[in-house]
């Protein structure tokens, strides 16, 4: 195995404003051979400005090189392993991008009449059918733009369901191992959140759950596998308890990468769940979007799904708005259509066998890392791991080295750090999710880097506590960056 070396050309780069020189242009146009129009004939002069202060003037080559140099500072999923926790920065196959760029898909007008976009509607319809098949839940909306918006949509549907039974109810129960967006979504949907502790195996505490369940509970919101990477193996019993008080089972399915093709939430008693196409179904989600968080639901909740719905009648596809019980629209048009195109391309190119192999390999890879690192790093829970494994800094902190130092030290070894300090229920958590994408040699290189960081913590802790040294900048003042961001360039 070859060891990774860090040896990049990292040039200093001024702001584009600072590269500006009066009169430079990034375009050249042929001389005008038609009559010039007078702009003020079209737009009132009071609405026009004569000058854009500080607007950068650069040539095309300056412009291209500026942004290309900046892009080389980034660590990205096409560059190397992304061991980030539940964000599943898995590889996005390039075939998805090619398909999404087909002009009839990329350039279609969102207000085009249904008859003109039959193929586009068919894409949405077929994706819905496949997601219904994979989740075991018949109702699907592709509208939400993120997992968190899928949660909000789902909880609004839960509220609509209970309201139709004449009582919206008061509480949403959420385990302490849930994703942080869950309590936020439940609160925005008007519910009070009650936390359920985890047991010593890292699963929901069944006795505590039973105690909290009452006719005032609207639903349980269960992240499964949970953020410890542990499968809630008592899920059938949990579903039974929840249904016994007339509440609904909401599953946060953002971690579906661990389950896809193996088992179906609908078969476990789940009534409603969201998926993250930008996690499991390999659509890109750099820089906060665009994402896609479809919601899947049981037949008893279908009438509450957002409108419009894509429906098929006599071989033709149409957008159907006529659903009076619907929670309404949650996104402009039909959601992020390009994400749906990529996800469908991904599912079809993987096929049934391929999808199964994804979850098998994702789980195998996480367990390989677990097995190779467990003698160096403290394992937070002994329960078998699914797609991610959570260690802590307990061993290293005896030498004054914390999780953050280990993460920064990995940057100096050429790796993106894993998720740190999450989940909150593990002190000094280091959460590693390799996904199915990396090869064994890539996994081995990462493992060696982690072992090296452990050795450094004992023999040379300063290397870690002063890391990163090889990156463009060292440790940033993250609090100041968040509290007093400077987002605007000015000449002064
Ligand atoms: C990522 C994630 C979410 C939130 O999804 P976004 O698209 O980032 O809003 C919710 N739950 C879990 C378990 C996740 O991993």
Concise structural overview:
The chain has helices at residues 39-42, 60-71, 94-100, 103-106, 118-135, 147-164, 181-188, 206-212, 235-244, 337-373, 394-397, 403-412, 440-459, 461-465, 478-483; strands at residues 139-141, 171-175, 192-196, 217-223, 248-252, 272-274, 295-297, 309-313, 316-320, 378-379, 389-392, 419-420, 429-432.
Topology at a glance:
Elements lengths: L38 H4 L17 H12 L22 H7 L2 H4 L11 H18 L3 E3 L5 H18 L6 E5 L5 H8 L3 E5 L9 H7 L4 E7 L11 H10 L3 E5 L19 E3 L20 E3 L11 E5 L2 E5 L16 H37 L4 E2 L9 E4 L1 H4 L5 H10 L6 E2 L8 E4 L7 H20 L1 H5 L12 H6 L9
Parallel strand pairs: 2-3, 2-4, 4-5, 5-6
Antiparallel strand pairs: 1-7, 6-7, 8-9, 10-11, 11-13, 12-13
Cα distance spanning the termini: 52 Å
Bound molecules: pyridoxal-5'-phosphate
Q: So what's the overall shape?
A: globular
Radius of gyration: 26 Å
Individual helix count = 15
For this structure, what is the CATH homologous superfamily of the largest domain? Type I PLP-dependent aspartate aminotransferase-like (Major domain)
Which CATH top level class of the largest domain fits?
Answer: Alpha Beta
- Counting DSSP E segments of at least 2 residues, the number of strands comes to 13
**Can you give the mean pLDDT?**
93
SSE string, helix = H, strand = E? HHHHHEHEHEHEHEEEEEHEEHHEEHHH
Summing up helix and strand content along with how strands pair, one would put the structural category as alpha/beta
CATH-derived topology of the largest domain = Aspartate Aminotransferase, domain 2
């Amino acid at each position: 195995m070859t060891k990774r070396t860090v040896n990049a050309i990292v040039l200093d780069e001024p702001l584009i404003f600072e590269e500006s020189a009066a009169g430079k242009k990034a375009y050249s146009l042929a001389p005008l051979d038609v009559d010039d129009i007078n702009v003020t004939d079209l737009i009132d002069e009071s609405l026009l400005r004569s000058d854009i202060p500080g607007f950068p003037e650069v040539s095309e080559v300056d412009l291209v090189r500026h942004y290309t140099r900046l892009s080389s500072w980034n660590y990205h999923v096409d560059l190397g392993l992304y061991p980030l926790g539940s964000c599943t920065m898995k590889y996005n196959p390039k075939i998805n991008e090619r398909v999404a760029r087909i002009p009839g898909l990329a350039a279609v007008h969102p207000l085009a009449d249904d008859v003109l976009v039959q193929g586009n509607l068919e894409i949405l319809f077929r994706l819905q059918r496949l997601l219904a098949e994979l989740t075991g839940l018949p109702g699907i909306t592709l509208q939400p733009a993120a997992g968190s918006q899928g949660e909000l949509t789902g909880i609004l549907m839960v509220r609509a369901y209970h309201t139709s039974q004449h009582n919206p109810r008061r509480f949403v129960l959420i385990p302490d191992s849930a994703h942080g967006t869950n309590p936020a979504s439940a609160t925005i949907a008007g519910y009070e959140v009650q936390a359920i502790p985890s047991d010593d195996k890292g699963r929901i505490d069944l006795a505590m759950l039973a105690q909290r369940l009452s006719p005032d509970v609207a639903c349980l919101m269960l992240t499964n596998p949970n953020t410890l990477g542990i499968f809630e193996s008592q899920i059938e019993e949990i579903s039974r308890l929840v249904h016994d008080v007339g509440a609904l089972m909401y599953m946060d399915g953002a971690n579906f990468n661990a389950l896809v093709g193996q088992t179906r939430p609908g078969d476990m008693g789940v009534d409603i769940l969201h998926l993250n196409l930008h996690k499991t179904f390999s659509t890109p989600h750099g820089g906060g979007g665009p994402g896609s968080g479809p919601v899947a639901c049981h037949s008893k909740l279908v009438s509450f799904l957002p409108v419009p719905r894509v429906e098929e009648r006599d071989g033709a596809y149409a957008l159907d708005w006529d659903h009076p019980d619907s929670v309404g629209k949650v996104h402009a048009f039909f959601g992020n259509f390009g994400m749906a195109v990529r996800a469908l391309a991904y599912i079809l190119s993987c096929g049934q066998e391929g999808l199964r192999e994804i979850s098998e390999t994702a789980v195998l890879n996480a367990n390989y890392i677990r097995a190779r690192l467990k003698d160096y790093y403290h394992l937070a829970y002994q329960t078998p791991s699914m797609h991610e494994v959570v260690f802590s800094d307990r061993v290293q902190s005896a030498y004054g080295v914390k999780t953050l130092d280990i993460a920064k030290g990995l940057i100096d070894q050429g790796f993106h750090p894993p998720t740190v300090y999450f989940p909150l229920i593990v002190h000094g958590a280091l959460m590693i999710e390799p996904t199915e994408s990396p090869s064994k040699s890539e996994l081995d290189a990462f493992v060696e880097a982690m072992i090296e960081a452990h050795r450094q913590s004992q023999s040379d802790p300063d290397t870690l506590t002063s890391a990163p040294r090889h990156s463009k900048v060292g440790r940033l003042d993250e609090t100041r960056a968040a509290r007093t961001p400077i987002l605007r360039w000015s000449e002064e």
